[in-house]
Amino acid sequence: MGKIAIIGGSGIKDSPQFKDIEWQSFDTKYSNGWGDGVVDYQENESVIFIPRHGRDETCRYGPSRTQYGANLITAKELGATVVVAISAVGSLQRILKLKI
């Protein structure tokens, strides 16, 4: 049976499921013009976790620059037969205070 790939945001990477698993990198050689095609991931026996916005704390790729294609290529090349993508609004902080 194939593996399950989870492509998620910053909240998923803190899951205890992946706490002690080392990070690895996969070079897809695919670039969307913003990223370099290298995808960081964690993998246990049957689950692959790929952070949608990149691994670093700055969320290297914003929503319009995320390496969606490279993430999916990585999942497939690592043996995933199912991909679950999880998304949430990261911030709803007020940017401008409007005076009416």
* Beta strands, count: 5
Question: How many domains would you count in the coordinates?
Answer: 1
The biggest beta sheet is recorded as: 5 strands, mixed
Question: Largest sheet, order of strands side by side?
Answer: 2-3-4-1-5
Nearest-integer average pLDDT: 81
* Intertermini distance: 60 Å
Order of helices and strands: EEEEHE
- Our Rg estimate from Cα atoms comes to 15 Å
Shape, principal axes of CA atoms: globular
How many helix segments? 1
Structural class: mainly beta
Strand content: 25-35%
The portion of residues assigned to helices is 10-25%
Low-confidence stretches: none
Short description:
The protein has 100 residues and is mainly beta. The chain is built from one helix and five strands.
Helix and strand layout, with pairings?
Layout: E1 3-8, E2 24-27, E3 38-43, E4 47-51, H1 68-77, E5 80-85
Parallel strand pairs: 1-4, 1-5
Antiparallel strand pairs: 2-3, 3-4
Question: What do you see in this structure?
Answer:
The protein is mainly beta. It has one domain. It has one helix and five strands; from the N terminus they run ββββαβ. The protein has a five-stranded mixed sheet, covered by helices on one side. The longest helix has 10 residues, at 68-77. It is globular, with a radius of gyration of 15 Å.
